[in-house]
Amino acid sequence: MATHDPELRRELDATLQTRRELGPDYEPELLESFLEKVEENVDRRVRRHLAEQQVQVARGARPARPASEAHAFWQRFGFAALSLVLAVPLTAIAVGEAGSVGLIVCWAGIVGVNAAHRAGARSARPGTDPRGAAD
After folding, report:
1. Beta-carbon neighbour count of residue 75 at 10 Å?
2. Contact at 8 Å (CB) between 49 and 55?
């Protein structure tokens, strides 16, 4: 756990102690009970976080972008930069070997690889449609 919740820790200790006392026959029920408490805790944290964001938005503050969005941006940027760096020698080779047909095939491949990467990145993100339309 990134942040240690004393209440959840107490619940886990109590669940483990109860399991020791009652034996493995009651383990499924004990686990289910503990997982319900974890779920309630997560729900409470999410509601609190959303309420904090709503307060920030109401005050005019711009909510912070999650780290995963920033990482996704740099991943896309790095892929695009690498594509352009590799495009220079690939273009020279293609033009030298096949002329303008080589140029067209080379750039069609570069565009195709970038489009496939972008489509894959969109479909991997929850709440997005790979066709570019929002859910």
Report:
1. 12
2. no
